[in-house]
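Example record for the data management plan.
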Amino acid sequence: MATDLGVISHSAAVLSYLLLAILIAGKYLRREVDRTMFLAALVSAIWAFSLVSQSLWQQPGFFLRYLLELIRDAAWIAVLLALLRDAGRSGQFMGKVRTVLSNATITLVLLLLASGVLEYAFGIALLDGKTKVVGQIALSLLGLSLVEQIWRNCGSLGRSSMKYICVGTATLMAFDFFMYADALLFGQIADSFWDARGFINAFLVPLFAVNVINTRKQPVEFQLSRNAVYHVGTLSFAGIYLIFLALGGYYVKVMGGDWGEALQVLFITLALAAFLILVTSRRVRARIMIFISQNFFDYKYDYRDEWLKMTRELADLGDAPPLPERVIRILGDLVDSNSGVLWLRDEDGNFALQAATNMTPPKYTTIDGESELIRFLQEREWIINLAEYRQDPVRYNLLEIPDAITKFTDGWLVIPMYLDNSFYGLTLIGSPYAKVELNWENFDLIKVVARQTCNLLAQADAQNRLSRAMQFEAVSKASAFMVHDLKTLIAQLGLLVNNAHRHRNNPEFIDDMIRTTEHAVRKMSNLVDHIRKPEENGDETATIDLFAVVQQLLEHHSNDQPVPQLVGNPDRALIHADADQLRNVLGHLVKNAQDATPPTGEVTLTLKTSQGQVVLFIQDTGSGMSEEFIKFQLFKPFESTKGLTGMGIGAYQAREYIRKIGGTIDVTSEPGVGSCFSVRLPLAQPNAPTSQQTTENDEIKSPKSINTAS
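Corresponding structural encoding:
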C-alpha cells in the first residue's frame, strides 16, 4: 500500500510539473527567471518520473536517481539565483557576495555529482551514505538562506510578486531538510516522508504558475544588510547545530546500551536549552554583529537602520519611558551598551542629573558649570573615553574629571551634547556588552545623534517652560480682571471720600453713600467667593428690564463729564441676564465713552427694539478709533489707548459677557468724529408688542444718522 501511495504521489508530481513546463514554454520565456523555472519544472518532472519508474519497473538504479535529485535541487537553487541577477547594480561588494553564494552552490553540487558519477561509473565510493545525506541537508539550508535573503531585501511593494515563489521554494527546501534530517537521525528515510513528497511537490505547482503569469513584476535587487547577514548566519548555524545534534543523539543512543534512549532524550534537551540561551543572549548578539561589521562591511553601521531606529524612538510622544531615558538608550545602542547617565544645564549654569539607566547615582550628582571638564567640552567637541583616560591622562591634557562622573564605576564614554554651537549637556555611557573598537566612524555617528537628540531635549524643555509661563499668564490674567473690578470700586469709594466733607450733613448724600458702600461690599464679596470657588459661581440669569438698567447707568455716571443722555422714550425691554454683570459691562462702555470725549462733547444712549431683539446704542463724539485698531486691538485683552491708566480689558470683558447671554457687539468709529457701540440682545418675550417696535421691513437706524439729520 505504501508503494501504491508513493506511485500515485510522484505521478501527480510528474503531471503537475509537465503542465507547468508547458505553460512557461508557451508564453513566459522572456525573463531569466521564467527560463530557469522552465528548466526546474522539466528536471523536476523527469526526477519524479524516475521515482515512479523505479517503483513500477525497478529502473533506473539508485545512483541515477540520486544524480537526478541533485540536478533537481541545483535547478531550484538556480531559480533563486536568477531572482538576484540585478545584484551587480548594487555595487562591487554586492556582486562579490552574489558570486560567493553562486560559487558555493555550484561547488557543492559539483562535488556531490562528481562523487555520484565516480561511484556509478568506476565504483569509487568517495562519500558514504551519511555524508550524502549531510550534503542534501546542506543544499536545503543554502536554498532556505537564499529565500530568506530574497524576502528580507524585497521592498513591501515587490513582496506581492515574490511571495508565491518564495513560499513554494521555501516549502520544498524545508520539507527536504526535515526528511533528510530525520533520515540522518534514524538511519533511513521514513515511508511517511517519502510517500507524501510527491503530493507536496504537486500542490506547490500552482504557486509557481501564479508567479510566472505575473511577468510585469521586476526581480528584486540584492542588498545585503548587517541584520540579513546575522539572520542568515544564525539560520545556517542553527542547521549545522541541528545536524551535529542529530549525530550526537544517534551515537549517544548507540553507545548508551540500556540507557541509550533516556540518555538521547537528556542530551537533546540540554543541547536545545543551550542553543536557546545562545540565541537569546544580547551579549552574544553584540559580539556577532561586531564580528560581521569588522569582516564583511566597509562601514561599521547600517546608517539607514540606525536612523530609522532613532526616529521611531524620538517620534514616541509618550512618557514611557521619559525622553531623557530614551536619549540614553539611543546613544547606548550605538556602542552596544544599555546603561548611561544624562546631565543638562540648569538655571544656575550648573549641570543637573536628569536620568540614570542601569547605573546607580552617587550621593552628589551635580557638575559645576565652571569645572575644568565643562570648559574643555565647551572648547572641543571631544568624546572622552574614560578607559583611555585612566591609562593615559596626558592624552586628555591631564583633564580633571568631576567626582559626579568618576563615582560611576562602570562609566565608559563622556559624550558632549550641543544645541547649535552652545554646550547644553553631557551623557555618560556605561561599558558595552562586547569589546568595541572605536574609530572615527563611531565618533562621527555619536556626535550627529547627540546633536539630534539634544534638539529634542531642548524642545521638550522649552515646551515645559512655555506651559509654566501659560499657567502664570492665566493667573496674571485673572488677577488683571480682579484688579479692573477693584479699580472701579476704589473710584466709587474715592469719590465718596472726596465729597464727604462738603455733603456730610446732606441726608441724600448719606443715603447715596450707604447704597454705594453696600454695592461695593456686595461686589467685593462676590469677587472673593468667585476666587475661592470659581466652579460654583457661574453667572445666574434672570428676567430683567434693560431700560431700568440703562436708567441706573445714567444716574451712576451723571457725576462725570460729559453727562450721558438718553435719546427717545423707550418702553420696557425684558431680557435674560445677570443684572450686576450686565450693569458692570455696560458701565465699562459708558465710562470708556466719557473718557474718550471732552467735557464739551456728547455721550448719548439710545434703546430700540425690533423683531425679537433689543439694541442699545452708546454713541460719543470723542477721539474715535481707526478701523485697524477696532479690528486687531479693541477687543484684545491688555490692549488700551489710555496708557498706564487703563487695563485694556473693559471692552473684552463686555464682548465676552454679551456673547455669553446670546448677544453681539458691533462698533463703528472714525478718528476725530466719534464712536458708536451697538449692543444687540435677544428679548425674553420676543412676541410681546412694544411701542417702539418697528415693522417687519424696517431697519434700526444708527443714532448717529438721526443726530446728523436733526
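Summary line stored alongside the record: The chain is about 60% helix and 10% strand.
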